[in-house]
Specification:
single chain; about 240 residues; alpha/beta; six-stranded mixed beta sheet; six-stranded parallel beta sheet; globular
């Protein structure tokens, strides 16, 4: 029996465990999938010492960047992105880092082409946002980050205006705001600038309709949550673990 799992913090909301357990059952695989809900990334050493049958891990908030110092090596794309969401554990017990978020996002986004213009806003500057930036760059989008504080190549939320929103037809929420159980939270952007030519993409998949997406839909925008992205990146993770 091989063991796989999800590494994160406050991850009871995650669908990954259910997704892989259903997959193992359908494929008649005698594997298990465990949620490793940890308070500190340092606990990875304890997990590796106890779970001898561990072959691979998905990594989620807040450890996509914090895991990097523990890696034996990273693949080229994960290194360029600067964040890891998939770990393969070698026979010697070494951690090899990959990123399948960019693959999942690219595949899911393509299902909603065409998009008016090529201007995007990336809400958030954490590990997930780096994979989104990688995809947008490959698609020749002009993009800006939005963060709580003023940064280079970024707006602060206080700087956002109706006009800025109007001129960026793709808006991606990479923050955890709105994730169950805190479903009343959302990124504070001027939604009056959102219109029928916008696509609002939320990486959150639980709940399926976040307040961010609902407010966009109320303005006539097309909306998409992170469920398809999750499925694509999960399939990619499985390929990585078994390559």
């Amino acid at each position: 029996m091989a063991t796989y799992g999800l590494l994160g913090k406050n991850i009871s909301y995650s669908f990954s465990k259910k997704y892989f357990e259903n997959f193992f059952e359908t494929e008649k695989l005698n594997h298990r999938y465990i949620n490793f809900d940890i308070e500190s990334i340092d606990e990875i050493q304890k997990i590796l010492s106890i779970e001898k049958s561990l072959k691979g891990l998905n990594v989620t908030i807040p450890y996509k960047e914090q895991i990097i110092p523990f890696l034996y090596k990273m693949d080229k794309e994960a290194k360029e992105i600067g964040a890891v969401n998939t770990l393969k554990i070698s026979k010697k017990g070494n951690l090899i880092g990959y990123n399948s978020d960019h693959y999942g996002f690219a595949k899911s986004l393509a299902e909603h082409f065409p998009i008016e213009g090529k201007n995007a806003l990336i809400l958030g500057t954490g590990g997930a946002s780096k994979a989104i930036e990688y995809v947008l760059k490959s698609l020749s989008f002009d993009y800006k980050f939005v963060s709580r504080d003023k940064k280079e190549n970024a707006y602060s939320y206080n700087e956002l205006s109706k006009e800025i929103i109007e001129s960026h037809k793709l808006i991606i929420n990479c923050t955890p705001l709105g994730t169950s159980p805190n479903i009343n939270a959302f990124p504070k952007i001027p939604f009056e600038g959102v219109g029928t030519k916008h696509l609002l993409f939320d990486l959150i998949y639980n709940p399926r309709l976040t307040l961010f997406l609902k407010l966009g839909k109320d303005q006539g925008a097309r909306i998409v949550n992170g469920e398809a992205m999750l499925h694509y990146q999960a399939k990619k993770s499985w390929k990585i673990w078994n390559s």
